[in-house]
Amino acid sequence: MRVIYLILFLFLLSLSLLFAQEEGSVIITEIMYNPASDESTTQTQYIEIANTTNSVINLKDWTIDDEDSDGPNTLPDVDLPAYGIAVICGSTSSDFQGAWGSGYILIALKDLGQTMFSMANSPSTTSEIIQLKNASGTLIDEVNYDDASPWPADNNKSSIYLNIPKDQMNAQSNNNGANWSLSTSGIDGAYTSNPYGVWDAEDVGSPGNILGDASLPVTLASFSALVKSKNVLLTWRTESEVENLGFEIFRSLSENGQYSLIDSYLDNPELKGQGNSSVGKTYHYTDQTVQKGTTYYYKLADVSFNGQKSFHGPIKVQVTQNQLNVTSNSAPKTFKLYPNHPNPFNPSTEIVFDLPADKQNTVQARLDIYNINGQKVRSLLQQSLPTGKQYQIHWDGKDDSGNTLPAGIYFGFLKAGNFQQSVKMCLVK
Predict the structure, then answer these.
(1) How far is CA 82 from CA 62, 88, 156, 220, 231, in A?
(2) Are residues 167 and 30 located together in one domain of the fold?
(3) Are residues 44 and 161 in the same domain?
(4) Are 299 and 332 members of one domain?
(5) How many independent structural domains does the chain possess?
(6) From CA 180, how far away is CA 141, in angstroms rounded?
(7) Which tens digits make up the pLDDT trace of 111-141?
(8) How far apart are the C-alpha atoms of 86 and 46, rounded to whole Å?
(9) CA-based end-to-end distance of the chain
């Protein structure tokens, strides 16, 4: 029986390694090789990689290498955003951006004290294999290409790129030579890496673009949701935008259910994009049509000038019963945050605070929950409130994502105008 279990374990382990190699979470999407490169501004070369998932992936201690003994190059501690792009170059960041511009994550090896491995076809005489591995040494993706000289014209702007829609990219499609191409018809003859394809053209270069010169409309840094009072606040930030008309908001009651369009840049000026911009921008959208006690799923779509839509998400939001109530209309004399009741509590508690009368009649109030490590786990309140009242708010012991928090010590922190006060709370199980 033990032998059977051992065989089963080894079989499952082999499957996990196989799928890890072919997961295609981050894949090589473009190679700009120049045999005459001296890694200066006008002669630099690069390798582009892309995150094909809707989650952030950290590249710390990932490696990229070829068949030779002059590598590997080790990637730094950087986060590759969902559907984000990183360009690995051998020169400094100032040299590379001076030649190619910005709008993507740049990993400049010279700034890291590294020399890019030789991209020439040694020891092979017909092709070169470039491999991308994660921090554990697992093969994530590899590309075999021919770097015959001229390639195709020893032009410092010659590159090959993965010419398939980004939502179809994975490790297997990346290794299919038929999916690789150059952007214009051939001028120098064909250079074949059998069975990995034929490339016979000159490209003008497209660093930071997954589809050669047809880049992603938006590089998204974050997409999050927060329940505020009776509404859901969606917040997202772009790192760059290329031909971006604007955004559309979709909502569903189940993760894999049908998503309905609830607002669009066509009707809401706040959802209009920047067109072309390498400067990041933060956007906000408030959904005022939600109901308490309901779980929602949101997707964000950016729309390019040619009508192409790229989706981000979904993200899950639970609109819980954290109703803010006025408990007393007799005007308090001072700001005060009372001890929560009950305390200790399981699973919920009530928090009461006073806002004294003020000539401004309103005050911007914020009530957040922090764990014992000082990390914010829940935003219960963030809005302008009428002064001269006592308020009570319900906390259900969950974080902003609707997850039940573990037992422990938590702190409620109230900030109203210039007033700040905290209360210690004990969640038990």
Answers:
(1) 17, 18, 30, 7, 26
(2) yes
(3) yes
(4) no
(5) 3
(6) 15
(7) 899 988 877 654 455 556 788 899 988 888 8
(8) 10
(9) 40
